[in-house]
Design goal:
Largest sheet: 5 strands, mixed
CATH superfamily of the largest domain: DNA ligase/mRNA capping enzyme
Bound molecules: 2-(butylsulfanyl)adenosine
Distance between the termini: 41 Å
Strand content: 15-25%
CATH architecture of the largest domain: 2-Layer Sandwich
CATH topology of the largest domain: D-amino Acid Aminotransferase, Chain A, domain 1
Helix content: 25-40%
CATH class of the largest domain: Alpha Beta
Oligomer: single chain
Structural class: alpha+beta
């Protein structure tokens, strides 16, 4: 073994301290301080050192987060203190009953409660010995859970080391954000893998992966809310406990409230009934906890539930509406997907007009017909779904849906292969497939070609001007002005936007190619690792899986894509059209991730909406009022009073040039 010089040990220590600190700032506090590039450089240096000097290994090294080798299966962990579940209250009356039970057992009239959000994820227990994360488990049956330590280490908001050298078991909920869930389901749908029904199932699937790299790629997060085993009392009530967790480096949900009595509890619960739809994660209720730990101990537990806490569950959000029609969409791969067009109905914070019907079997199983009255809900608060048909409302006028035997767009045979659920258009030149491929290519996450939306693409395809994505780069003004509603100015702008996309970062092209399983983040990782398209074309599967987060399924999909002659010809044509095929500074995180902006005054080159969209497309947020959480105020001409407040708070103020510089590609 290579001898381990003291200077190397010190450097590794320093890198770990720095990386852990920046992980904490980024993932726990949502306020990063350094650019991604700098973070990546530190991580790469540490990985290299640990490879060269295996003696450097420590279980709390941030390199452990990347996800090691796939495991054979999960061991079990016996919880030192059982993980109980909560009793439920479904209405105000049941909350008052709970309050009565608590007060009578305590023989007290004044009981404070802490009310927290009930995160709809998976309960986990994390064990720390002398401040180091040593193991973690699922709840299991409450007595024994599964040992998912390696997977938990990939979750960046779980600290690998606490602030103090404590031996303690903490508990919380692992969840997936709605954004990550939708992104994951999009990728799955594109790859024709059954999408997850809700973020909770997606998070559960990710946590129970035998390959920790897959867990790492699913972008899970955690909120901690309680403590199982501990050696001494660091707190005397739930509010202090939450603060204690925060000071040790855990991520704690900011929305909790100390209520002086049950009326305040009920009011707080009511607030969240609607506000919950604004959160980027799902909650299925609130948890009401007696604040005082002494009281909690007096109250104790029943066999299954604590007597000092209860879950207030929201009633299910459902609505009744009518199916006006069932339409078919032909996807990039020719898949014919039916969608129910609904009479618009208000549900869980939005107006619902459509619900996915997935495939023929799904429609048959539920016996869904055009004209039916149906009950809809939103799976995981996000995805409209038909729960069931109100058959008693049928008049006999309803029409059964029949999957056509030809593609509704190109007329080629539509075929359902044996063993498959999906019916597919077999037309090699199907304009709908081409159109969907082009929409993806031009989309914001991919080549980001402004002005090249579905309508223009539709005209281009119908006129036969574009037969594959590379044809876009050979369009001229004369071609464009022939299109409906395309004036000289729009044609000029579109050509400029297409031209500009030639020098896009490489990841945009990789994503735009539409390879199964390759989402935006994977594309970034590939670009960063392989540096140019030729290296990616020639890569073997095992050369791709060395990338943290990329497992064998994605790798196989890439090599399969890169072996097809027609794909290679397309890439050659794109090369000849002058598209950038090399990585410059590809970031693995969005440029403005975690940054909050305020817009004020008139900008010359952007409308408000455009500026907002640009910021959001780069991962930033736009807020309406200046606070200490604001990172930048962008001031155009005639700024409002917000600029004064920003000055008072010492917030960075940028003019339009500064803004352009900030958002420009590296
Ligand atoms: S406290 C004794 N607090 O809800 C039980 N649980 O049915 C202590 N949950 O298994 C749990 N958010 O998975 C608590 N803020 C929160 C929670 C929460 C979600 C989950 C947890 C638990 C289930 C109870």
């Amino acid at each position: 073994m290579t001898e381990l010089p003291e200077s190397i040990r010190e450097r590794a220590k320093e890198l770990r301290r720095e990386i852990n600190h920046h992980d904490y700032l980024y993932h726990v506090l949502d306020s990063p301080e350094i650019p991604d590039k700098k973070y990546d450089l530190m991580m790469n240096e540490l990985i290299k050192l640990e490879k060269e000097y295996p003696g450097l290994f420590t279980p709390d090294s941030p390199t452990q987060r990347i996800g090691g080798k796939p495991g054979e299966g999960f061991g079990t962990i016996n919880h030192r203190v059982p993980m109980l579940s909560l009793g439920n209250a479904f209405n105000e009356g049941e909350l008052r009953d709970f309050d009565q039970r608590v007060k009578s057992k305590l023989d007290s009239k004044n009981v404070q409660y802490v009310v927290e959000l009930k995160i709809d994820g998976l309960a986990v227990s994390l064990y720390y010995e002398n401040g180091i994360f040593v193991k973690g488990a699922t709840r299991g049956n409450g007595e024994t859970g599964e040992d998912i330590t390696t997977n938990l280490k990939t979750i960046p908001s779980i600290p690998l080391k606490l602030k103090d050298d404590l031996t303690i078991e903490t508990r919380g909920e692992v969840y997936m954000t709605k954004t990550s869930f939708l992104e994951l389901n999009n990728t799955r749908e594109e790859a024709e893998i059954t999408p997850f029904a809700n973020p909770r199932n997606a998070a559960a699937g990710a946590l129970r992966q035998l390959d920790p790299k897959i867990t790492a790629s699913r972008q899970l997060s955690v909120f901690m809310y309680s403590i199982g085993y501990y050696e001494s009392n660091y707190f005397s009530n739930q509010e202090q406990l939450l603060n204690f967790l925060k000071t040790q480096g855990f991520r704690v949900n900011p929305h909790y409230y100390l209520c002086q009595n049950i009326n305040e509890v009920i009011d707080y619960c009511k607030i969240w009934q609607d506000t919950r739809f604004d959160l980027n994660y799902t909650i299925d209720g609130l948890v009401v906890k007696v604040n005082s730990i002494d009281y909690q101990e007096i109250l104790g537990n029943t066999l299954k539930n604590p007597r000092w806490a209860i879950a207030f569950k929201f009633p299910p959000e459902e609505a009744v509406t009518k199916i006006i029609d069932i339409t078919l969409n032909v996807g990039r791969t020719g898949a014919l997907t039916p969608t129910a067009i609904l009479e618009p109905v208000s549900l869980a914070g939005t107006t619902v007009k459509k619900a996915a019907l997935h495939n023929d079997d799904y429609i048959k199983e539920k016996d869904i017909r055009i004209g039916d009255t149906v009950l809809v809900h939103k799976a995981g608060d996000i995805i409209p779904e038909i729960v069931g048909v109100k058959k008693e409302k049928r008049s006999g006028e309803e029409n059964k849906f029949k999957m056509p035997s030809v593609c509704p767009v190109c007329g080629a045979d539509a075929v359902r292969q044996e063993g498959e659920a999906i019916t597919r258009c077999t037309g090699a030149a199907c304009p709908a497939q081409l159109q969907e491929g082009l929409i993806h290519f031009a989309s914001r996450g991919a080549m980001d070609i402004e002005g090249l939306g579905p309508a223009v693409i539709n005209h281009l395809v119908n006129k036969g001007l574009v037969k594959n994505v590379s044809d876009l780069y050979y369009l001229c003004k004369e071609d464009l002005v022939k299109l409906e509603r395309m004036g000289n100015k729009s044609a000029k702008n579109l050509l400029e936007a297409i031209d500009k996309s030639r020098s896009n970062p490489l990841y945009r092209l990789i994503y735009g190619l539409g390879i199964f399983h390759v989402g935006e983040r994977t594309a970034r990782l590939l670009a960063q690792h392989f540096k140019c398209i030729d290296n990616l074309i020639n890569a073997e599967e095992n050369e791709i899986t060395v990338i943290p987060e990329i497992g064998p399924t994605i790798a196989k999909s890439i090599t399969t894509f890169m072996k097809q002659d027609q794909n290679l010809t397309l890439i050659e044509k794109l090369k000849s059209a002058g598209i950038n095929m090399h990585a410059q500074n590809e970031n693995t995180r969005e440029k403005l991730q975690g940054l909050t902006f305020i817009l004020t005054g008139t900008l010359e080159n952007f409308t408000r909406t455009e500026a907002r969209e640009k910021i959001e497309s780069l991962g930033g947020k736009v807020s309406s009022s200046v606070s200490k959480n604001t990172d930048y105020l962008i001031a155009g001409d005639n700024p409002g009073t917000k600029i004064n407040k920003a000055k008072q708070l010492g917030i960075n103020i940028l003019n339009e040039d500064g803004f352009q510089y900030l958002i420009a590609d590296d």
